[in-house]
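Known limitations

Files may contain more than one protein. Parsers should not assume a single record per file. Below, a two-record file is shown to illustrate correct handling: read the sequence, read the token line, then continue until end of file.
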Amino acid sequence: MRRTAWLWGAPVACILACNGGGGDDTEATDGTGSAGTMSSAPSTGNTPGTTTDDPPTTGGPTTPTTPTGTDGTSESSDTTPPVTTTDGTTGDPPDPNELGGPFRRGINIGVRNPKFNDPDGAWLAGQVGCNSIRVSLPERHLVTWGYEIEVADIAAYADMGLDHHIAFLTSPIPEHSTAPNGTPDWELPHWIPKNLYEPAVVNGAINPDNYWAEYVYKTVSTYKDHVDMWEIWNEPDWVADWNYTETWDTDPPTKEQLVRFGGSIFDYVRMLRVSKEAALLADPDAKIALGGIGYPNFLDALLRYTDNPDGGAATADFPETGAAYFDILNYHYYPLWTPGNSDAGADGFFASRDAFAAKMAAYGVPERPYNVTEVGAPKAALNGQPGGVEYARNFYIKVFARAQAEKFVGADWFILSDGDPGEPFGEMGLYQDIKDLGAKEDAKPSVTGVAARTLNSLLADSRADPPATAALGAPTDVRAYAFRLPDDRQAIVAWAYALGTDESAQAHFDLPTDRSFALHAWDSSQTGTSTPVAPEGGLLGLDLTASPVILVEQ
């Protein structure tokens, strides 16, 4: 596979997150986290991104004078919807087990070490318990090297136990792009394709005059055996100034505002429509995912406008709003702008979900399964933002355990390896910096990677068990979630809920059970130890801290 250098800009990262495919061409953003849900705080854009060939960014979104949202970049322009549970908005979304099996423990691989190929990165991901990858399959890469260029690599991932991927689609070739002549290659992911309003399908066949439709059709046809979901573009709602988003509850997001997409909201609805028609022609089981959005009011616009370029009005030719053209509500989240500890950060992850769910409910649109293709937390507190060794490892376990328990399809951690120190996105790796290593076997998991390996190995192939979770009856100062292992044993993830600003919470929990367990600390995958615990009188007494423990039935 072709490789490009790993780029880190200052003050914001331009990160190469080519994710197990399309190694020379992925989409870029500048490292600012996705939309948040705290009230009274504005948005600043989406998340660190994924473009090969991109130069380092020299700055990020305009920094607002008031605190930013819960997940690091944004807040919706209107008053944030009340935080409600999934069940409290529109009812349970479809069972994610129907979308490819067990919970996706995914990863953005990146290209930190140019000597390592994509299967090397996948091998490293598997060593910390990942079972899926966010794959990049841009048109420019596939046209340059042939549509089957990633087939052997993706088959190799499956042999390593990583499968059921999500792939994001972007970056038309220059001949198919609306980019002005002379636009450098690294900017092509910021311009929509030409001929997007040509019919996608004509007489039951893909229309080659619709360049995007033909690209989607060929890509889905080639990779459908290993890709379950198709992420359309990367962060289409990224903005350079959060003030633009203040109007989106009433006015359509414009081409001039959506600078990482290069089209209007009507064009994005059109892209979803074309993608769905083309993908379903190639694979009747294909699922279309939103492109890692950040702002709930961008979703609001998506749900109220059609793909009609004349104001998004419904007509015979443009009969449906964007709600008709996506199957997975996929967003991005970073807790960097959420003051507090790892529980505050994790709460922000789900508050973002709830804000999106509230928009769906407001339009009477059935709730969709959720996936998050970028989420991460730094092992160092930098630039006045939350972080730290305990913070990052606790955040990983809390987010991934809760996401599985609350029926997310999956989540993709950002990122596999640490980068250059001094910026939060350089401290999010599941491995210590692999840049100068000669062999993948020399890589050392970071503390977050150790926690990931512990959780992911103990819960491998497990299923969420909502009735068992409810039966735990966890008090308000405890979080506890139950899972069912493939052999029908129970597993429970539990911790003391931290209300303060640090990781020092403590709580006692009398867990009602007649089962005996092995209690695993966050680092048991490294220590190889666990503690046997057994109930007395139908109760298992647990003294918990902010560091989650995983109990596995014996």
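...continuing to the second record:
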Amino acid sequence: MTEPESTELDESVREAVERSRSGAPAVGSVVRDRFSSDEVFQRIVAAADEEITSGARELFFSALAAGFAITITFLLYVSMKASTGGDPVLSAMLYPLGFIYIIIGGYQLYTENTLPPVALTLERLASIPALLRNWVVVLAGNLFGGTLGAAALAFGGVLSPEAANAALELAQKGVETPWWSLFFKAAFAGLIVAGVVWVTFAARDTISRLAVVYLAFLAVPLGGLFHVVVSYTEMVYLVMNGQLAFLVGLTEFVVPVLLGNTFGGVVLVTVVNYFQTTENRLESARFEGAKRQLSIREWVLGGLVGRSYVPLIETEEGTDDHPDSYRVVVPIANPRTESHVVELACALAKSKEDAIVDIVHVVQVPSRVSQRYGAAQNQRIISHSNEQLEDARERAAGYDIEARTSTVVSHRSFEEIFTVARRKDADLVVMGWSNDRIWAGGRAERTMSELTSRLPCDFLVLNDRNYDTSRLLLPTVDSPHSALSAEVAKSLHSVVGSEVTLLHVADGPDDRERGEAFLSDWATEHDLEDAARIVDDSGDIERAIADRADSHSMVLMGATEQGLLTRLLTDSLHLDVVNDTDHAVLLVERATDRSLRQRLFGR
């Protein structure tokens, strides 16, 4: 091996070693044993991303363990207070022990969550609803754990009589503190806790973190400050001893402490530290997450309108496209079995000038699985996906169009398609559909009517049984979805020579003449005068389509005003022609602006 090659290999190995599994820096770039504020921020974002995308069960039980661990702090504090005659310094010597368990052990504590998830949210890599969900779950777990701990102390005979009296006195003193005094004392405690989190992410070894946590939390009792979970445990202990009404303790003691801790952590630490970082704060963390920031609407409303956070991995590389390019996005779950979807998308793109086909392999992982993907695992996923996408690239090459492939790994399936379509500014999405496709799992993500009420572009959904585009049956009505079906039929006719048959169903025999006139005008309007025409006067649209489906190789079905994708993903698309025919069916929905009233009640 030559010297340059050896040097290059050494640098590669060093870079791999000096990165954590999430991509955040493991050593400083300027001074190896000291991180810059940007590098600390990157480490915090990497940790916060794992927390905010964890399942509710995982978060809750981690928070419950933290809440119960706080009982150790309360227990040792009142025990030391009783045994030392109330000496303020000696009494506090073991106070930090519960917090050491929590922070070093990686449990979820609400006051710690005023920094990492908020930093992620400020960077628009997580939505505000995702942050609030994280806070609610963690706080609920902390308080439940504190309740269990207080019950154990109150009824378990753990405390000596002297320590029990000290506990009552301590809790009573907190309750009697004025509301605003509690708030500001708690704000300083919140500052200390969030500051500890920042400093522990700047530390490189456990001994340093241990020293920081101990000294910082020692300042809470010595300064007469208040921590919400400790205060809640004290309050519940007082209630269980019949010394206080729960609601009074909650509103006059716990709430001001909660607000103060939140204010101190978010405003005095997180926001201040955020604005002292530079534009390079996300240079490497979160797979260049700055390029995938949420829109303002997604950031404010989160899952109600789109993404709550960004994908785990995305291999797309930035390109300089012509602004007038026609973009066709093809999200696929299994590149080896969805070749017909790619073929259809390429045929449609071929009929457009300056068209680009983006084939996106969407790899879904269960939401309950933590995002602990290391560099080696990431590379395996990407490498395997690239191998699977080779067939798709070869098919696209046969159409002599510009085609690109990329891989996205995400906890979402169908929702991720909308994210990709918006980010790529797609004109058309072509995807596959059958009962065993990954998109069937989209129903569990969130309300599909919310997701599909405002499509980012036109959608085609292909059920590719016996895929064949030689003979197309196109049912016609006066709707934008039927007009999109006409555009698809024209494209396939010009590129692969498809024969097109137009079908219109009249209300009855008396309406047949009007139906013939409509179909003639419709064919002219959509430049399909050469297509064969059929007018059915049975008045039964579904039966009319089913009767003629077997004599054609593919049926193009336009959406109703209720919405194709909404019905498809909520299992309400019960059409015999779709389920029973042995031929391919292409479901078509055009992106239209519908008012709230129209989305609720139809047109």
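Parsers that stop after the first record will miss the second one. For reference, the second record is described as follows. The longest strand covers residues 355-364.
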